[in-house]
């Protein structure tokens, strides 16, 4: 099977990582995959923030959980209230993807995140898409976190991902559930 399709089939969300740093070459290759993702009208307006500061990650974790704990979504609220839950799963690499606050940019950022998740898998790393990190940007400390993350003015985070050497988690190919494809045949001549 094609290597790219194999990486897509085997990529799983990993939430338990070894305490092993990601080499710069691997990190850079993952970021490049995100930068190569398609974007509307080829604007390429995404911004990638590599977060290595443990104190900043701790603050984002704490603020995210405080806001999420009040969510009407029971599952999110319960996760946020767990003392042991870390939104970044203690991963050694956290990447926040942001872009201008305008139509289509969210899709551009999502395409970049997906490329990076597949790139991480192809390089032998585990990864997980983490939108829990978006909670603080809609709260009272949103501006502070934008500044601390160096996110350009007029931009906002649309998602984040974590990458690391997997310690545990699902393996093998993902099982596709349900009948989610239909075909509209060509019009009869």
Q: How is the secondary structure organized here?
A:
Blueprint: H1 3-10, E1 16-17, H2 24-35, E2 47-51, H3 54-68, H4 74-81, E3 93-100, H5 105-122, E4 126-129, H6 142-148, E5 155-164, E6 166-168
Antiparallel strand pairs: 1-6, 2-3, 3-5, 4-5
Short description:
With 189 residues, this protein is of the alpha+beta class. Helices cover 36% and strands 17% of the residues.
What does it look like?
- The chain has a four-stranded antiparallel sheet with strand order 2-3-5-4. Strands 1-6 form a two-stranded antiparallel ribbon.
- It has 189 residues and is α+β, with helices and mostly antiparallel strands.
- The N and C termini lie far apart (37 Å).
- The mean pLDDT is 93.
- It has helices at 3-10, 24-35, 54-68, 74-81, 105-122, 142-148, and strands at residues 16-17, 47-51, 93-100, 126-129, 155-164, 166-168.
User: Regarding quaternary structure, how should these chains be classified?
Assistant: single chain
Structural class: alpha+beta
Shape: globular
Strand fraction equals 15-25%
N-to-C CA distance:
37 Å
Major pleated sheet: 4 strands, antiparallel
Low-confidence stretches: none
Average pLDDT over all residues: 93
Helix content: 25-40%
Please compute the radius of gyration using only Cα atoms.
Answer: 18 Å
For the structure shown, list the relevant keywords.
four-stranded antiparallel beta sheet, alpha+beta, two-stranded antiparallel ribbon, single chain, 189 residues
